[in-house]
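Quick one: structure tokens for this chain, please?
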Amino acid sequence: MRITEEQYQSISEQIEQLQSLGVTSEEWEAEIMEHFKKLPKSNNGNIIVFLHASPRRFDVG
């Protein structure tokens, strides 16, 4: 899906925040794969939804 420049910046900042909190790339990949694996077919796969829930998924923040 296409994102705006503003959304791209927000995504980048949220990923950087997770990295600064000690989330490894391996943890990130495992959680993102699990998230997308469970999405219903009707979901467009928007990563922004995942990122908003990521502090809870990684038990940080």
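The helical segments are 5-20, 25-37, 47-57.
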